[in-house]
Amino acid sequence: MSYAIGVDLGGTNLRIAAVEERGTLLEKVTLGTQVQRGREYVVGQMTDAIRHVTTKYQDHGKLIGIGIGVPGFIDMDTGTVRESPNLPGWSNYPVHKDIESRLGTKVILENDANAAAMGEKWLGAGRDTDDMVMYTLGTGVGGGIIMAGRLWHGMNGMAGELGHHTVLPDGHICGCGNHGCLEQYASATAVVRMAREAVANGLSDALANASRNDVEFSSKVIYQLAIQGDKAAQEIFNTVGHSIGIAVANMVNALNFPMYVIGGGVASAWDAFHNPMMEEVRKRSFIYRVTAPEAVAAGQKRTIVTRALLGGDAGLFGAARLPMVVNGESSAPAAQSKADTPVAGTR
Amino acid sequence: MSYAIGVDLGGTNLRIAAVEERGTLLEKVTLGTQVQRGREYVVGQMTDAIRHVTTKYQDHGKLIGIGIGVPGFIDMDTGTVRESPNLPGWSNYPVHKDIESRLGTKVILENDANAAAMGEKWLGAGRDTDDMVMYTLGTGVGGGIIMAGRLWHGMNGMAGELGHHTVLPDGHICGCGNHGCLEQYASATAVVRMAREAVANGLSDALANASRNDVEFSSKVIYQLAIQGDKAAQEIFNTVGHSIGIAVANMVNALNFPMYVIGGGVASAWDAFHNPMMEEVRKRSFIYRVTAPEAVAAGQKRTIVTRALLGGDAGLFGAARLPMVVNGESSAPAAQSKADTPVAGTR
């Protein structure tokens, strides 16, 4: 059976997967990304690993192509990375063409959050819908919008920058220059920052101990304290939930999509932020209220706000999916069939 | 030449226009909507006026159909008004079928803000773009999203509820149950409310005089005081601008569309709120910053935030447009040609 290669190029790990067109994983390889050794080294790591996999599966079926998810803006016209803070030296470098010429196969570049949305749409939470918004809560907050079964790129390939949605106009300053971006309240980085603020304000001995003793004072540790009952840690995840809720409600009101998916590492703390998130969504979107699962009869069109299903593999599977859907044609049988959202100007 | 009838059914006026398919107005009729006399009376007014117009132009060309813009939610599946606070007695009434049977021609129902977006896309600010967001700042704040040349309805026909975008999480309470909706800061109603608050706080003698002496203490009067230099009135339009700016920035970040159009009565105060609006858009959207007209070379893809061009006629022309674009086919030559936004998941 034909298969594709997906690459998830992060600041920490470089992961490569061979995935059949029906979605079955053949093999997954994880390497540390040695970003500090320079771009040339990382591209070498990547092409070596891809060659290893393609050689191994050369008798398995046709290689459809390679999809690569990278953090940062992708210029869709030229296939270059426009700006990537976590991958210094990659700006304006034609990754896509360079790797195509090295490997002799079609290569498609995509923003990592868009790739994750593609993965969840293909094999995860969104597999039965054609219209979804996905939030990836990681080091930063990324987003991807899938409309009529395809990624919506916008005019410059920059659409889906949902981490910079203003949720609190006079809120915490963001690296983008704005105040109160979602990313400042719902990323792993924000969770740790809020925990350090709580420690500085003497709000929690448990958080203070953890911040001193844990080698890595991470959002995971803070989540563990929250579920163990630490009030300050719980308050942090309340803030995470309220912030996502405001952002999601605004998208529900604008797009009236059937599905909103929350993924990325922080989504593991789902039970700690789900209630405050849904409280905001309900309060701030009457569209949600009249279309909430509990408000409509079975079989009626519902608005679902849900957790991502693929965990850290969403971007990897999504990247592998990219070469399968070039020009909108799909070779997967199940996922792309339902189209319950009218696009026409009239009915 | 073929023509269509557009109907703009508001709480105050009922307007009917006959418009040729190239966009030329044949005739426009304005009647007071006698809502208090009941639905049957208003439908009678409407069908009488339409019959008068169609009889007059029966030798002019083929009647393509009738489009009706109404305030409130439209159930796209059944063609009924789902809820309309300004038109009591219209809920769940099959307007579309009733009028079709009375007049014997195709009738298409649409939310009034969507119809306005359609009008601006056809003949106004958005005529050279296929993707735009429109805000209608009137008694309330409505919105319409045009994507790939067509209205985006969402799964229940409720998309584009941009007046209920949260711009200030703990802000003024809204009729929808939320706090801090755009509508609470950028509608004509909100302008008057903020002016009354300023009067109550003793902030402006001029506003106090106007509120006592003018039969109608309207957003227009408050705008006049603002341009005459009244600080409190200016501050109100600063708030209008900051609020729209936050909302627009969020949409730019999500959709990366080329155009955002501000229409409705309050848009007449453009010079009083334009600067604070653009200040927010610039601050809160780096997508805007890198694609602003002043940031890109001539001919490059730009993000335009602009005023609507058709004034109060946007909804009327848009309604007439509806029957012309059923099933997405268009008979207009000029407007629907440019498609510079890639929709494909890959390039």
What does this structure look like?
Two copies of one chain form a homodimer. With 347 residues, chain A is of the alpha/beta class. Chain A folds into two domains: 3-120 and 311-328, ATPase, nucleotide binding domain (Nucleotidyltransferase, domain 5, 2-Layer Sandwich); 128-307, ATPase, nucleotide binding domain (Nucleotidyltransferase, domain 5, 2-Layer Sandwich). In chain A, 37% of the residues lie in helices and 19% in strands. Chain A has eleven helices and twelve strands. The first copy, chain A, has a five-stranded mixed beta sheet with strand order 3-2-1-4-7, with helices on both faces. A five-stranded mixed beta sheet of chain A has the order 10-9-8-11-12, sandwiched between helices. In chain A, strand 8 (132-137) and strand 9 form a beta hairpin. The longest helix of chain A is centred in the last third of the chain and has 25 residues, at 231-255. Chain A is globular. At the A-B interface, strand 9, strand 10, helix 8 and helix 10 of A face strand 9, strand 10, helix 8 and helix 10 of B. Chains A, B: Keywords: Transferase. Chains A, B: It is an enzyme of class 2 (transferase). Chains A, B: One of its GO terms (molecular function) is glucokinase activity. Chains A, B: It comes from Koribacter versatilis (strain Ellin345). Chains A, B: Its EC number is 2.7.1.2.
